[in-house]
Write a structure and sequence with these properties.
- The structure is a homotrimer.
- By secondary structure, chain A is of the alpha+beta class.
- Chain A has six helices and 15 strands.
- In chain A, strands 8, 9, 10, 11, 12, 13, 14 and 15 form an eight-stranded antiparallel beta sheet that branches. A seven-stranded mixed beta sheet of chain A has the order 2-1-3-5-4-6-7, sandwiched between helices.
- In chain A, helix 1 packs parallel to helix 4.
- The termini of chain A are far apart.
- The A-B interface holds A 1, 3, 5, 34-40, 51-52, 54-60, 63, 178-180, 215-219, 228, 230-232, 240-241, 243 and B 10-16, 18-19, 21-23, 25-26, 29-30, 33, 42-43, 71-75, 123-126, 129.
Chain lengths: 273, 273, 273
């Protein structure tokens, strides 16, 4: 049993996603196709990279993950397969796989150069159909990545901002707002734990100031803001039964990138002395 | 052949739904997963309950229906399986299965207490991933609900408003607005039939007053309001090629719960005497 | 291995699509169901017809394509199967299959008249569930279209506007705006090639005047408008990393049908003489 997942910014009101599925099933009718998301914001490579990184480890070993957020389609950017211990990733070499490459350990990257694994005519506008879908389908039939191209060592990187510490404050930033309006930051559970060393934090995000971290969304009062470690182990700002993104006091299109401060609640006696 | 359906309020722009699918397929790669809806309004337990009740009877016997609208995740609410004659339902015990329990006759409810059927680490924010997906996958492999926990008799109920009669008027209310803007009420074909006993009705809903009930959407003129018995056998207010919800004269966020009057068109001679 | 695709205007927040899938799987649990789109604009038969025409040729031979955009459900419009060399199409005879009928060459059209292939009760509001889903499922089990009804020769047509030439100008129109805001016209690569005969064009669409045709979206500067032949071989107006539909200077609800001018850039010396 072989699985292909799809992550794109194509939306679901056009034929684009279905065309990719048709191409795959025409090459390998036995493979099963699972949608991760087709609602990635148009052209937002980092958004796709994060969603894919979050979803992929839950899939069976051997799953082929296709990701197509590809504003540079038709120019010089390379089509690639990234091979990790557990999975194959197929898509453009534009940084979309950088979160995978940096977190899944040693991986091999193949520049796809063999047109016999593509559709017979290659457009300059839809490589999801012409290159990535057929390559994924051929992988699912057992072809080896190395048969399909050449190893490269210089994949395009994604600039990923990491939190920085300054005295008693840890500065992070918002990387995503989810469907519930929850605000997800780049501060991981691990980084936070090392910074706090057991002391209680105060978190500042736009207009919101929240004391302490809770465990679940319903630990705050209805409509009240809270902070917790979200399901993918990153610091998250939420509102019980509400949308934190509507409470932060920052225009929606500016929320991503907003600075988040985590202040260590040091012992007041120690400080005033 | 075994099927699992999914009904959630997770939307499709994050990794959440795909993560649940990955968890299921990692446990049982042979099961087939069908989406019912991931566009349930965030936290609207009743909306999920109605959609699930409407969809479930059309699926093959033995289908496992997972529903996760779970604002109380991580607190004391119990994870459950509801077993009916034909199906299994897996999700939180927060009223989401109440429409099923009250319409599908005798059922058995199991409180899920055995962590060996869950993922190894249980978060307090995402039981869809950690509990409900793996339990559904194990059910699909043939495990018995009773192996997974303890029978309970006190499931959480959902307050369901039923129509009430006052003289020649039947009062119901709006329970849902569908994708087409059709307004669906809690007045069933059966209740309506008993009330009307063959006489013609006049229906009042917000600004709309509609005489008689038609059989299909195109029996009214283009852009005209009509009333019919919808595909799930409830009284429905619609507009031919338009959105009834835009014609009712009530703000969109207030439509649900709006009172609907069905007036029996009694013989005028009898009334004036 | 047998496939059924679905194209509807049902959206994904109600039970409607899932109900159709349940009906299909109850009749043939082995068939695999692929969504083309459920976000067709409500009642827009032409939109569905174009999306289906664009997606269908990429699917394996024998695929059964169900399309339900059906504002006339419950009145006299006929339910049909259209049989082409490669596929079966199941849905209402309201013009939705006209783009298929006119481009896929000789086809046979069957008016569905045999209730033994439908659900036992036929509503006047949801033939997707009661007629089209069960007919598709029976086709996937090997029943012949001719067993299900009578051949008809007079399918309902869709008025399709074709480009017209006037001197050095080719007039086309906008037929669709896609998820990226790209504006897709009814001017095919073939018609354009014959008109230009190698000369360079100037394209006028609303406020936009664009010189020449490029090959890929990233050949214009960021935020600049461009024209190319899109992935389905029609002239398309786009903006590199932007939404052309927001730049054209025409209200969104008026864009479809907007006139597009392609002017042949004739030799200026010839013209002034």
């Amino acid at each position: 049993m072989s699985f292909i997942t799809l992550t794109t910014d194509f939306g679901l009101s056009d034929a684009y996603v279905a065309v990719m599925k048709g191409v795959i099933l025409s090459i390998n009718p036995d493979v099963r196709i699972i949608d991760i998301s087709h609602n990635i914001k148009a052209g937002h490579i980092a958004h796709a990279g994060y969603v894919l990184k979050e979803a992929c480890p839950f899939f069976p070993k051997g799953t082929i993950h296709v990701a197509v957020v590809d504003p540079g389609v038709g120019n010089a950017r390379r089509p690639v397969i990234v091979v990790t211990d557990d999975y194959f990733f197929v898509g453009p070499d534009n940084g979309i796989f950088w979160p995978i490459i940096t977190t899944c350990g040693p991986s091999e990257i193949i520049h796809l150069t063999k047109p016999e694994f593509f559709l017979s005519a290659i457009s300059k506008t839809f490589h999801g159909r012409d290159i990535f879908a057929p390559v994924a389908a051929h992988l699912s039939k057992g072809y080896e990545p190395k048969e399909m191209g050449l190893i490269i060592k210089d994949p395009v990187k994604l600039e990923i901002k990491t939190p920085r510490k300054k005295g008693n404050i840890l500065f992070g930033e918002v990387i995503r707002v989810d469907h519930f309006g929850n605000i997800i930051t780049n501060i991981s559970k691990k980084v936070l734990g090392r910074f706090l060393k057991g002391s209680k934090p105060v978190i500042k995000a736009g207009d919101l100031i929240i004391k302490d971290i809770v465990n679940s969304y319903s630990e705050a009062g209805m409509g009240e803001a809270l902070v917790l470690i979200g399901s993918s182990d990153y610091l998250e700002i939420a509102v019980n039964r509400g949308r934190a993104a509507d409470f932060i006091g920052i225009a929606p299109y500016k929320i991503i990138g907003t600075e988040i401060e985590v202040r260590r609640n040091t012992n007041p006696i120690t400080r005033t002395n």
